[in-house]
From TrEMBL:
UniProt-listed Pfam families: DUF87
InterPro entries according to UniProt: ATPase_Atu1862_pred, HerA-like, HerA_central, P-loop_NTPase
GO MF annotations, alphabetized: ATP binding
Domain of life: Bacteria
Segments forming domain Helicase HerA central: 10-70
Keyword Nucleotide-binding on entry: yes
Biological classification of the source: Bacteria, Pseudomonadati, Pseudomonadota, Alphaproteobacteria, Sphingomonadales
Gene3D superfamilies per the UniProt record, alphabetical: P-loop containing nucleotide triphosphate hydrolases
Keyword entries, A-Z: ATP-binding, Nucleotide-binding
The organism of origin for this protein: Sphingomonas gilva
Protein name as catalogued: ATP-binding protein
Amino acid sequence: MSVCVDMGVDGAGRPVPIDVEELLATRLLVQGNSGSGKSHLLRRLLEGSAGLVQQVIVDPEGDFVTLAEPFGHVVIEASDYSEREMGRFAQRIREHRASVVLSLEGLEAEAQMRCAAAFLSALFDAPREHWFPALVVVDEAQLFAPAAAGEVADDVRRASLSAMTNLMCRGRKRGLAGIIATQRLAKLAKNVAAEASNFLMGRTFLDIDMARAADLLGMERRQAEQIRDLQRGSFLALGPALSRRPVAIRIGAVKTSARSGNVALLPLPERPAETIRDTLLAPVEPAAAPPPPPPPTRIEPEELAARIETPAPAEAAPFDEDAFEAAAADAMRDLVADPEAAFRPAPALYQDFQMRCRMRGFVKPPVALADFARRLAMARAGIDPAERHDWGEALAAAGDLPDDMLGPFLLIARAAREGAETPGDAEIARVYGTHSQGRVRRLIANIEQRGLIASRIDLSGKRSFAVPSLGWTTAPSDPGEQALA
């Protein structure tokens, strides 16, 4: 007996089911312009099959995280984790047959592609004993399987396209049934789209997209015009899991909705134009004058006499700068040795630093917050605080680099100066105070755009950095490995 999900009704009001078991073997492609109802269609399918099969959703806009509470999906916010962690999560997902939503919201396009590639590749590479059936839904698939090169790096595009191709071409034997949705068929790689045997085509207006949709549905070109006339929420369906002939479906209702909700008109406030003008252009009130200083407090004669009779404090001993620098260096070493300090903001660590200096006999350390931030960046980069005066060249080269980016730059400069292996992404992330590999890549790109470093990747995939202004270069190493201790 087939296991089916009711997707909606046809033009005669008859229900149109989708066979889940057949879908696992034949895959699905959904196409439609923005606002045609693709997300609603996917939500209807996911809600109907939630208790029947494992579901893995790659969600670039965070639309499907609302499935978590009513249906028990686990939401993974990709921006909080590294690519390596994404791979480990994917392996556990296959092992434990958990339904998850991978939310890529908040990441840039290139970071989304990197994350999706790592995640989908790990799903695909799971051990044979974990090849359980699962629906893998990829929304906005044209982002991850583009038909042509775009603004992202070629290696990122190739990795993402390869992962999508494996999902759609070879995933069936591993239990993975790809369900991809796209706004533009013309922007989706043909070898990815061609592997689907089931199609749900929604409203589209561009001739090239209508022509491709008509070809996939087996319609003549002159019949493609009806795709333009489809209403929102209506789709033409074809495929072994749906119908042997193209049939129009009106998608049924769903229980959940996207966090953003639907865009709708709201009535404007009813105010006369003069009132609104007066409100917007009302004179700005001047800042209130500061209150007058309080009158001097009268000191009673007895208190004044007591103050006069109190001996003056002994003259303070001269400040020993060398002793303070030694104490500050010890305090900084203790501070950065704390594993949690890497992820605490500089102002909070500044208070901790002052306390450690007071414990060493310096009541008011003569270090401003800006100076402390530079000392902290150098210590995090592995530069001994006692040797900070030897790094004037590197600090001068950094120029106006923000304090939070100074530590990673000095880490690279230190490795280049010593001729050591290039620091790995994990180590740069620790110095930068983040768990996100995407932030690390954007950081490196930012520093490189400023002309402070130059990166190079050789044919074996090993990376090296140069500091052009100083003539220093690191030894090549794998970016995924942590090179320095």
